[in-house]
Amino acid sequence: MTTVRLPLFPLNSVLFPGLVLPLNVFEERYRAMMRELLKTPEDEPRRFAVVAIRDGHEVAPSAPGMPDPTAVPERGPAAGFGPDPLRAFHKVGCIADAATVRERSDGTFEVLATGTTRVRLLSVDASGPFLTAELEPLPEEPGDEAGALAEGVLRAFRQYQKRLAGARERSLSTGTDLPDEPGVVSYLVAAAMVLDTPTKQRLLQAPDTASRLRDELRLLRSETAVIRTLPSLPASDLTRGPTSLN
After folding, report:
1. Cβ of 104: how many Cβ atoms within 10 Å?
2. Which of 16, 81, 129, 132 gives 56 a disulfide partner, CB atoms 3.0 to 4.6 angstroms apart?
């Protein structure tokens, strides 16, 4: 089994291969991570792993508060993730390649990364200034009938876009704006749908592309039917997610 050890960046969201991840890095543990990444030569990938948090806090408590105003703020790389960080995270994540790591004058960082490869989380090391993890790359198998399923998902996704945007055609992507490669389709749709983190995580860790597309087709049909009964929903940007607070 081939494994890789990388810095670990836990988030309250799921990163998919091919999707862009903007980060505003201000906690010291992640600032230390970015300073380490900047030591990598510019012609080599500056990689870290992103995992979704199952049980914990993306930003560690930094001051006493409710229910205990005398509580001591948590410190260290595993702050907010309990005594065993491995149990706090979902077990499948995504490697991110940082195209931009820019340090601001106040020591915080502006980072723009792109998801590349799915990985399985094997272990977490909290002994350094930031979390690192041993990871096993997960291959993406196409599965049966991925091509036909991708066509169906794209059709259903366009209907979903139309309903979510209030049937205003000018706010929709045209067919030429959307990819047709099944794996890319599956990840784009998973990222663009308005779903909770556990559902997005389920899509990320699907055993193959076809399985992910089948799940998405069910979700798209179900969500579109729900939206049809709620016509006052506002339009939503379907290709970008919010910037992480950290």
Report:
1. 11
2. 81
